[in-house]
Structure formats: structure tokens, C-alpha cells
Amino acid sequence: MKLAFTASARPQAQEALRRLRGLYGETSQAEADIIVALGGDGHMLDTLRRRLADRKPVYGMNQGTVGFLMNDYDEAALPERLSKATAIEVRPLVARCETLNGRIVTERAFNEVSLLRQTAQSARLKILVDGAERMSDLLCDGVLVSTPAGSTAYNLSAHGPILPINARLLALTPISAFRPRRWRGALLPDTAQVRIEVLEPERRGVSASADNLETRDVMAVDIREDPDNAQTLLFDHGHALDERILREQFKV
User: Fold this and answer.
1) Catalytic (active-site) positions
2) Any idea where the domains of the chain sit in the sequence?
3) What is the pTM (predicted TM-score) of this model?
4) Sheet with 123-129: strands ordered across
5) Which of 14, 55, 115, 221 falls 20 to 30 Å from 107 in CA-CA distance?
6) pLDDT (tens digit per residue) in 115-160
7) Tell me: domain 3-91+230-248, CATH 3.40.50.280, correct?
8) Do 221 and 96 form a contact (C-beta atoms < 8 A)?
């Protein structure tokens, strides 16, 4: 089993990188069978994006803050744990952003694509699903589209639903909706094509973020699932992402 290691810039992640390389050696990422990521969820999301070209499986060990997408850090018997690991497939979203200055920016997100107001002015947004207008004028701080893997992250903090990892669904969730105040979002099939248009973009600036990659001053964002770029995450036996998401629904 050929392993390659990657780590965030955090001192503890860099120290873990040094120790694991000393214990198990390392091959290049191009030749590796598995990529071992050391850090937090942000580093895992960066690692998954970097693997879009080769789709090599990624096993994370937490050296960050939350580490929901990571396994517990343990230096012992790493090859044995990897040989018994549970594989979970995660499917990214692709976001095509049109900006005020005419740029087109395309990014992928494994957790969510979120639109947020840039100024003190609330955002005014129009929402279309599969070409049909579903909301003509949403006054809010923002809105997001979440994958099942990301449904326990920003989506849950915005009071969106938790989705089982194998659900063929996306969560469309408002962030601090002001008008209509009682709208709580929608569950959409994973085939849905979501378009969010910014009303009054010059006066009410809006940014779009694909996980932690931000594009400023957007006019419209088209969001869809990208099943052709599904990635494989590896988890220790009994602690896979589907079990973690299920447990999250029973927390009080």
C-alpha cells in the first residue's frame, strides 16, 4: 500500500506529518494508492478538490478544530486501519458564477455553495429550479445549496435539514430570511438545476462561496451536482460518515 501525506499549515498538523513520514515513509501523490490528509475539515475540502483529476481515495486524520470529515488521529497500525476502512462516496456541486465585471468563475464544493450579502444591505435574490421561477424576491442575508455530506455543516447552522449521506437530495436553505420570513427552504432532487439571480447587484452586493473559495460581486450563480467527479473518503470501521450524520440527528 503506497501512501502520500498532506497537511494543513497548523503546527500540530505539520508535526504529525513529520512523524507519520518517519514511521511509514512516503511515495509521491502521483504514485500513491491513498492520500492521507492531516488537518481539519477545511484541509480535507482542499484535498478533495486537488484530487478531482485522479479521484484517489482520501483518508483524513483530525489535526484541526471540528474534524467532522476526519478520523481520530492515531499513529499506530495505519496500513491495517486503511485496509479495513469503510469507503464513502461524496459528490460535489459545481457552481458557475457570473460577476458584475463579466467574469465567469466555475468552482466545485463538497459541502455547500452559499451566497451571502457583502454589505449592510440585505440581499435580494430570485430562485429558479430547473428553469422555473420558484421565488421571485427573497430578502435575506443569503441562501445556500448543500450536499448530504455538507448538510451538518453551515446548512445545519442555518437551520437546514440533515440529509443521510446516500440521500439523492440537495438542501436549499435560506440564511436569515426577512421576506418571506417564514420560508424555511426546500428539499430538491440531486438532478435539480438551481439558478440564483441577484436583484439590485450594484446596490446590494452578493458574494458566492464554493466551500471556502469566494467569488465577489456575483450577478447570478448556477448550481448543480457533479456526479462525474465523485470522490472517495475512507473512515475507520464503525465511524463512517453515514453513522456520524445519523448520530447528529439525535443530538440535543
Assistant:
1) 41
2) 3-91+230-248, 93-227
3) 0.90
4) 104-109, 93-99, 218-225, 194-199, 123-129, 132-140
5) 14
6) 999 999 999 999 999 999 999 999 999 999 999 999 999 999 999 9
7) no
8) yes
